[in-house]
Each structure stands twice: as C-alpha cells, then as structure tokens.
Design a protein that fits this description.
four-stranded parallel β-sheet, 45% helix, SDR_fam, NADP, alpha/beta, 134 residues
C-alpha cells in the first residue's frame, strides 16, 4: 500500500549482552524486526524479556537460539528466517568467534594500555581459526 513503510528484518548474533544487546535495542526502536540470537537459550530469552521491558516494543523482537559454530544450529535459524520472514535485510555478526587466540593473557592486558603493541607476540591465528571466524 502507498505510504506504508516496508518492514526490514535483522539478525544479531550474540545479541544477549554487550554490544549485541545494544544493537538489538537500537534496531528495534527504529522499527526493524530483530531476531536476537544467543548460544544459550536461557540467557537469550532473559535478554529478550529485559529488552522488551526496557523499550516497551515487543512486536519488533524475537529470539532464536544460534551457535554460529554449529551447522545444524545455523540451518535451523536459516529455516526460521525463510519460513517466518521470507528475507533478511541486516546481519550483525557479533558472536564471540574471533578467529584468534591470546597466547599470553597477562601481556595482553598490560600491552592493551601501551602504545607499542606487538600483536604477534601476544596473540596467534591459524588458517583454520580464520576460516571458522568467517
């Protein structure tokens, strides 16, 4: 219909806390239908309820469990999006999969506040880790 705004759909991975939670909040308050995802279903549902109470807009928020490292979980989310919305407009990949490991946590904490950071001395990455991240 003329004058009606088309609904946009978003998935936020790792949406149950921190930056992901904030992104879910911002998108939902702007009229985007948001699928908040989390590995842990209980934490995800708690975050969803907290968010709904905070912003008072429940029509724009739904939860779906997602472990971005599990192909079955990814397929389940894909099926949900396809059958429920028919499309996806926005993907915010915020899940805590970094593609690297900290080899020296103490040095990492000390260096993060310093100007001269030699990342290769405190972190490492393999091809497989980068591939998993992507």
């Amino acid at each position: 219909m003329e004058g009606e705004k088309e609904i946009r759909y978003a998935v936020v991975t790792g949406g149950n806390k921190g930056i992901g939670y904030g992104i879910c909040k911002k998108l939902a308050t702007r009229g985007v239908k948001v699928v908040l995802t989390a590995r842990d279903e209980k934490r995800g549902l708690e975050a969803l309820e907290n968010l709904k109470q905070e912003i008072g807009v429940s029509d724009f928020l739904v939860f779906h469990q997602l472990d971005v490292t599990d192909p079955t979980s990814i397929a389940s989310l894909t099926h949900f999006i396809t059958t429920t919305f028919g499309k996806l407009d926005i993907l915010v990949n915020n899940a805590a999969i970094t593609g690297s490991k900290i080899s020296d946590p103490d040095a990492f904490v000390k260096k993060i506040n310093g100007a001269d950071i030699k990342w290769d001395k405190i972190m490492f990455q393999t091809y497989e880790m980068a591939q998993e991240c992507v």
